[in-house]
Amino acid sequence: MRKLVNLLVCVLASLSCAVGQAQAPAAELRQASENFVKALDLGSDWPAMIESAAASGAENVRTGALEAINDNQTMTAAQREKARQIVPQLAAEMAAEITVFQKSIDLPRLVREMMEASYQKYYDAQEIQAMADFYASPAVRKNRAVEAEIAAENQRTGEDARALRQRYEAKFTPQEKQVLADYAASPTAKKQRSVDAQVNAAIFTFLNERVMSEVGKITERYARILADRIKQEQ
């Protein structure tokens, strides 16, 4: 009996150790992911993206409906005019419903689950933390600001972006250039270059399933409502 008790104690002790070892990497991965999200301010532009999708969807429904009305040879001129008056109202209602959906999204949870579905499948905690540290560095923040200036000048003047980049290099100190160069040569950066397409595809799939598919359903529903309303005018 005593041997059995001792055996159970040993088994439980080993299980406890194994659970503790599993929890530690998971906790490190969560913390590294949180640091990464904070460094990139990840998700901050998603509400604007959804609003843009709402506006785009409303415009597509509006233009498609107006084209269908204009091409409908079975309607009288009066019927077409009445049908045209329905379109802006329904398009506006659709955009408003998409906005309500957008505001209902738990953004922190969405970002956390996006990290689990993408970055955490390809990187370990140390790699994600290395990316977080790099993106949070003053050199990278300055690089983002410079890239925005380059993009604005390129759009304004049409000057080649590579030539602009060479000219803007003078804005960086030798230390900042070294930070950027060291990371570019690091194992983490090399891995990023090799799996970047897969990570982006995972993010696209996640957002499409969790967000854009719902926007699509709302758009399709209003398109059907609009089609039914136009038929009623015939």
Tell me about this structure:
With 234 residues, this protein is mainly alpha-helical. It is built from ten helices and no strands. The longest helix has 46 residues, at 187-232.
Our measurement of the CA-to-CA distance between the termini, rounded to an integer number of angstroms, reads 89 Å
Question: What series of H and E elements makes up the topology?
Answer: HHHHHHHHHH
Please identify the structural class as seen in this structure: mainly alpha
Largest sheet: none
Lay out the secondary structure.
Elements lengths: L1 H39 L5 H26 L5 H28 L2 H11 L1 H4 L2 H11 L2 H20 L3 H8 L5 H11 L2 H46 L2
Question: Can you give me a brief rundown of this structure?
Answer:
With 234 residues, the protein is mostly helical. The chain has helices spanning 2-40, 46-71, 77-104, 107-117, 119-122, 125-135, 138-157, 161-168, 174-184, 187-232. The longest helix has 46 residues, at 187-232.
Could you list some keywords that capture this structure?
mainly alpha; single chain; disordered N terminus
